[in-house]
Amino acid sequence: MNAGSEKQYGGLDRFRIMAAILVIAIHTSPLLSISEWADFTLTRTIARVAVPFFFMCTGFFFLQKLGTDSHRNASMLKQFLWKVGKLYLLSILLYLPVNVYAGYFTDQFTVFSAVKDLLFNGTLYHLWYFPGIMLGVCISTFLYTRLSAWNTFWVTLLLYGIGLLGDSYFGFAQMNPYVDSIYQSMFTLFDYTRNGIFFAPVFIVMGGMIANTRRRKKKKVVPYAIGLGLFGSMLVMEGLLLHAYQLQRHDSMYIFLIPCMYFLFQLLLFGKGSNRPTLRKLSLYVYVIHPLCIVLIRAAAKVTGLTPLLVENSLVHFTLVMVLSFVLSVMAIKVIQRIRGKKPDQTGRAWADIHLPHLQHNVREFQRVLPKDCAVMAVVKAQAYGHGGWQIARFLNKLGIDHFAVATIDEGIELRKKGVKGEILVLGYTDERRIRQIARFRLMQTVVDDEYAQKLNGYNVKISVHIKIDTGMGRLGESWDHTEKIAAMYRYKNLQVCGTFTHLSVADSLEASDIEYTTNQIARFQKGIEQLKEKGIDPQKLHVQSSYGVLNYGELQYDYARIGIALFGMLSKQGDKVKTSVDLRPVLSLKARVVQVKQVEKGASVGYGRAHTAQKDSKIAIVSIGYADGVPRMLSDAGATCLIKGKRRPIIGFVCMDQLIVDITDIEEVQRGDVVTFIGRDQEEGITAEEMAQPCKTITNELVSRLGERVTRVYHN
User: Fold this and answer.
1) Could you give the CA distance from residue 239 to residue 256 in angstroms, rounded to a whole number?
2) What is the distance between the alpha carbons of residues 258 and 255, in angstroms, rounded to a whole number?
3) Which residue, among 491, 557, 562, has the nearest Cα to 525 in the 3D structure?
4) Can you give the pLDDT at residue 624?
5) Could you tell me if 364 and 5 are in contact, meaning their C-beta atoms sit under 8 angstroms apart?
6) 619 is an active site residue
7) Strand-pair partners of 618
């Protein structure tokens, strides 16, 4: 699966909103005032796809990540349960007043009933979903890691079949006294078989199976559309027949719901458009909040005397609840984003604002211009070019990026320890004595030459590797003309080759001679790949382009594109020209504070070495950032500027280790605590990283990578 196509689940994200609306319909019966049968058809059959859809989404994204490493699987499960458990706890607290008002804590309330509700039923009627998904994922994970996918499906399908007799087909269970007594006993433990034991697992497993089988071959949309139409119709007929013969104890579980959900989910995967994390969050909030909105609407109707209009008219009631649910959900999201999107406090001396929406935009831009089957391999070495390594990688995980590149093994280990999922390629050399760490943390090591391959293989530890071919860069990699040595690197039994790559040395230049050199590099690489294939060797995934390789040679058809500096909205040098038109937005802004304002008389010198002498009576600001924070000392008296109150002001004297000096003679009302911008925008003015790097005779890659640990990273959603 690649980030440019199948990794975009816009269809799923959009249907999450529809599913949330269907859940509201289930709890408000919008067509009841018009026709009981029409309302039953909508809310008790068609709308029953909503919760299984959410279960399948969980299985689709969770189960496909499970592997053979039991410790990793357990860690993933623990993280999932913790995340959902927190949501469940918050939901319980939200509805505590409603439960009190409804008489939940009466004489019939016992420790057993509380435990039963917490583990199965939910403390309010819709909260059963949370213990259901937690228990369902536990069961699915247990089975999925011990049985084959199909055997897991059959076991969960059997559980579903048992649950059917306690739900829509309960009338059949009642026909046999022995079977009826079994179900009555079960109902002392939980009120419904619509729960995490019988209902959730089969849909979770179906989602995981679809995720793992969809990669293998191309799919066509028409068969799934026909299948959905056929089994959707049969689902409706099944529900109406069961209702007509009064066989249902509950109406969540149907036989034809299983194939209907399969075809629906497959069809939604064809939905075009990029991932929409906001829609996922919104659908969750609507799901949690809508019962509260039902209470609020009914209370308002009672107070105003408008119950016949606002409640008894079911369509109006549904519409009001839906609108209020979305309004309150959007407001809640905004409030939480404002709380989480913390800003530097008044004591902060120097910080970098990291604008994650800009990063998301840049990812989408590259996915737009890359060939369909080429995935983004995000280069997050050197703390993601100063932006924060694991923080950036985890955000990219959320965007569907699961291929990463780092420079060192320790960078890769840090990503793993911080929960980054997917493949992590170590681009640099790693001492072969650390091979067990490569295996333990599931890293992919670059094999730099045949001698190194022999040493790695000699440790008898199986690891995943990528082979690097030097086609003219002159750094790491076996030389492109060492055909036999390159071929030998694929034959070591302990090295599982997952990819082959090279690096272009002058892809950033559009000079004719450099274009010719780059073209020769590409040709050498391609020739080497063809020679390998002639020898019966599969080079696996291929990657050649870095940021400028994509921007200037976007027509190349490879499996990955290793995008680094450009992913963060920067080019290496000011004035660089590229052939591909992309709208890149800077992700990082660098700021500090004024810590003192002083008057300087004409002729007085400031800073080390008396490097600057005031030519007139002046005013200066001392700013709390220096070369130990990453502001190059070469900016000293180099004509460099910064922004204060939206105006450019010159940096004067030598940049010190911890502070620097700015001439603010022409600006009024500058005071201690004012923000100074070195990279980024202030009102109508802006300074780019490329502009800051130019007087230092360096490139943005070096500039932002050297931002010090004392510079706090503040992440804005």
Assistant:
1) 9
2) 6
3) 557
4) 95
5) no
6) no
7) 600
Active site residue 608: yes
Q: Could you say which of 129, 224, 285, 381 is catalytic?
A: 381
| pLDDT mean over 167-194 | 93
DSSP 111-176: HHHHHHIIIII-SSTTTTHHHHHHHHHHHHHHHHTTS-HHHHHHHHHHHHHHHHTTTTTHHHHHTS
Three-state SS for 259-312 is HHHHHHHHHHCCCCCCCCHHHHHHHHHHHHHHHHHHHHHHHHHHHHCCHHHHHH
Instruction: State the angle between helix axes of 50-62 and 129-144 in degrees (0 to 180), rounded to the nearest 10.
Output: 40
* CB neighbourhood size of 441 (10 A): 16
The answer on pLDDT for 216 being more than 60 is no
Give the closest residue to 685 by CA, choosing from 712, 649, 640.
Answer: 649
What pLDDT was estimated at residue 274? 60
CA-based nearest residue to 214, from 69, 441, 56? 56
Return d(Cα 255, Cα 237) in angstroms, integer: 11
Residue-level pLDDT at 631 = 93
In degrees, to the nearest 5, what angle opens at C-alpha 126 toward C-alphas 121 and 132? Answer: 50
3-state secondary structure of 490: coil
Question: Would you say residue 361 has pLDDT above 70?
Answer: yes
Strand partners, 686: 681
Give the angle 318-322-323 at the CA atoms, nearest 5°.
120
pLDDT digits (tens, 9 = 90+) for 452-479: 999 999 999 999 999 999 999 999 999 9
User: How many other C-beta atoms can be found within 10 angstroms of the C-beta atom of residue 298?
Assistant: 15
What are the pLDDT digits (tens) for 395-437? 999 998 999 999 999 999 999 999 999 999 999 999 999 999 9
CA distances from 310 to 298, 300, 302 (A): 7, 9, 9
End-to-end CA distance of the chain: 27
The label of the residue with tokens 């357990």 reads 74
Helix/strand/coil for 55: helix
Give 251's pLDDT tier (boundaries 50, 70, 90).
very high
Question: What span, in angstroms and rounded, lies between the C-alpha atoms of 517 and 519?
Answer: 5
